[in-house]
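Quick log. Single chain, no ligands specified.
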Amino acid sequence: MYTPKHFREDDLSVLQELMRDYSFATLVSVQNDGVPIATPLPFVYEPEPGPYGTLKAHMALGNPQWHTFQAEREVLIIFQGPHAYISPSWYEVELSVPTWNYATVHAYGKPRIITDQAELYEHLKTLITFHESQFDNPWPFQLPAEYVERLMKGVVGFEIAITRLEGKFKLNQNRSLNDQQHVIQMLSSVTASSSRETAALMQQRLTKHG
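-> predicted structure:
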């Protein structure tokens, strides 16, 4: 990923937070013929083992991508955080062009297929519990054992030990403070939730680094 110095993010806690908050990511791997293949999946991030942690996910048994997994070959997981269009009319300098603000984390690692059914069950339970926690009445995941076992045979679970992380937070750091503050103000007034989330992230980083 092309990352100019002023957009680069190396703080592990920041990268971990984005992977947790925007856990629906895209898994990219390469087939034997060199053609890439990608699947959007919900991931569970675990901070151990260090230094970068582990990602767990599952896909349908019929998805050919899991056949590309090799112990010695890295895969890429792309986590996309908030993003928004930036109008040049929001800048002080008249000669400006449109751009796009965004935050993303690229995680690389080597996959291992989960063959133990108890381990796969715990992964599914953790994933469901995490997402159900946002509701007032979470679904308890209490299903007949035979039914769950049958469904589990139709998925392939896997974990990825993260070997390296790349973070890019392109949030107008190359512009003046006035420009950044005005962009935050304008994004905050846009209806789209992603624009408001981008504004909130910009404000958070200005407060932290200001």
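The beta strands are 8-9, 24-30, 36-42, 44-46, 54-60, 75-86, 99-114, 155-170.
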